[in-house]
Specification:
The complex is a heterodimer. Chain A has eleven helices and seven strands. Chain A is α/β, with parallel strands linked by helices. Chain A has a five-stranded parallel beta sheet with strand order 1-2-3-7-6, with helices on both faces. Chain B contains 13 helices and 14 strands. Chain B has helices spanning 6-20, 45-49, 61-73, 92-99, 102-105, 135-138, 152-164, 177-180, 213-226, 245-255, 270-282, 305-311, 315-327; strands at residues 2-5, 24-28, 54-56, 77-81, 115-120, 145-147, 169-174, 182-185, 198-201, 206-210, 232-236, 239-241, 258-265, 291-295. In chain B, helix 3 (61-73) runs parallel beside helix 4 and helix 10 (245-255) crosses helix 11. The termini of chain B are far apart. In chain B, 56% of the residues are buried. The A-B interface holds A 66, 98-101, 103-104, 108, 110, 112, 117-118, 120, 122, 125-136, 138-139, 158-159, 162-163, 165-166, 169, 320, 323-328 and B 25, 52-53, 57-58, 60, 62-63, 65-74, 76, 78, 90, 93-94, 97-98, 101-111, 113, 142-143, 145, 165-167. The complex binds thiamine diphosphate. Thiamine diphosphate (TPP) is lined by residues 72, 121-123, 151-154, 179, 181, 183-185, 250 of chain A. Thiamine diphosphate binds next to strand 4 of chain A.
Chain lengths: 328, 328
Amino acid sequence: MEKLKTTGLSKEELVQAYKDILMGRRLDERLWQLTRIGKTSFNISGQGAEVAQVAMAMAFEPEKDYFLPYYRDMTATLTWGMTPKDIIMGSFGKDADPSSHGRQMPNHYGSKEHNIVSHSSTVSTQIPLATGIAYGAILEKSDFVTLTTTGEGSSNQGEVHEAMNFAGVKNLPVIFGIENNEYAISVGTKEQYAAKKLSDRAIGYGFDGFTVDGNDFAATYLAFKKAVKKARDKKGPTLIEMMVSRLTSHSADDDHTIYRSKEELDSLKEKDPLLAFEKQLIDEGYMTKEEMLELDKDIKAQVNKATDDAEDMPDPTPESLYEQVYAE
Amino acid sequence: MVQMTYLEAINKGIEEEMTRDKKVVIFGEDVGGVKGGVFGATQGLAAKFGDERCFNTPLTEGEIAGIANGLGLIGYRAIGEFQFADYMLPAVNQILSETAKMRYRTKGDWTTPIVFRAPYGGGVRGGFYHSQSTEKVFFGQPGLRIVTPSNPYDAKGMIKAAIRSDDPVIFYEHKRLYRLLKADVPEEDYVVSIDKAQVVREGSDITVIGYGMVLQHALKAAEELAKDGIDAEVVDVRSIYPLDKETLVEAAKKTGKVLLITEDNKEGSIMSEIAAIISEEALFDLDAPIQRLAGPDVPSMGYALSLEREFLVNEEQVLEAMRELAEY
Ligand SMILES: Cc1ncc(C[n+]2csc(CCOP(=O)(O)OP(=O)(O)O)c2C)c(N)n1
């Protein structure tokens, strides 16, 4: 069964996907390390969602499409064009951090250069913005597509409903991604929503919704590919729910051993999409174990260099606290 | 010059800006089509500029703000109309979490140069939810500008300046003033500063500071008092946030006697801040305690005429308060 072949992606593209996924994992491990040794104060990670994020992002054209991510989307932003150094500068709060120049907490990704829009910590406020940008495609008679993501708990916010409703009414070229890792900090899905699938909500807004296994690279990529084509062809929005795992605690300030059982925690390794993707690449003949080990070495070296480079960058000056409150 | 109401001046100002710059778009509830808003402020715009640039939204204020934010991010000059200032409350999250902070949190990489129009104020038998002054909700949010014109000339010049501003502006329009005043308004292009208070009547005995409808009372009372040889200086705040401290403090120092009038509740209104600023900057130039004339501290005005009248600051009260202060 050659599942990856069905994506239509070349070997080079699939190897690149693996590089991004592995980089996402190694970079995130570094960010945890930095909090542990007290060099940074916070981390919130996408470990367990890397495969889904890369598969999602690869379906877009970052040079012209817009991305309004949420805080777990680091790996997706790498595929979209941000660099490991960009990410680490955000964690250190450096002046050159493209996400917010040290003004927001880590993991609030953004980059003007890459059409990645800054987001707040108030969950889901980016979703209405995505529909505004998508309406811009109609005004401009352009075929750019807007992607925005959030978590399953955050998808219950009223603004998500308002935005999806408008997207349906105006048939906007926008794709809503929900990364369902079945936890909103400690609160499970049963206490968040009564629907069978969150993607069924799309029916109520008048457009298509799909739930995909986010650990399945090919299925996720194909779902987004189809949705992107549909949006570019002016055929309207799509809601895609990706079922993913949360391998870590919610954030550096959380301890998931308090609310997840030992059995569940022990089973997380089996749910690791990185391992599954590696196996798939080997089984389907795209890479060998040796090549992967070689690549891992290279990626670790890149992470080390990015860390040093980012740490050497200047902090924001205290005076800059007063800058850019209003247009200058 | 041509005679125009405050409402016509706003309509004309928007029309001129939409003609000048095709990036100006306007939307809200009942704003598009033939209706042109429940007050008619956008009448004729859809016919002239098409129903993509002047459009109806669903009944969703959070989304109106979100669409504006999104369009602003990609270079549009979006004008979102809230049907009544009372109904901006569902949009507070968007406006405070996104609009007010976008420039600052990205150090200017992303900005939202948008205008939110908000008809406010009582005296229209609107009861609780069609009469409120909600500007204090947004006051003291660096990054936002809040303005309100008090006459047709300013209405046209300020809406044009607001649309051209690179900062997000909440443009409060007093509903009672919409058709009450007719005045000469130039047909040619002009703008009125949106960060300056204006001395609308020079005087040497007392200083009266207000905005919106109460200013009309103050101007009438000043003419009345002039007959008795009392010379009142009347200042239109216009720029509610940030406040033009210099003009306000100068005017307070000039006469040493200050009366602050607002249609809002007395406690926690904008006037409380103006009183604090004047005390801080000009206490030893004052010859009398700062006086405030305001609505009572009850939730809002009632629908019954008797209740509405009891709530609203009226002409007699203004005249009385000004006379008392002059005699202090
Ligand atoms: C409006 C709002 N309420 C509460 C929070 C605090 N908070 C941050 S993340 C989070 C859980 C979000 O869970 P989910 O949407 O499922 O995403 P996940 O973290 O699982 O990816 C909460 C409650 C917040 N940031 N914003």
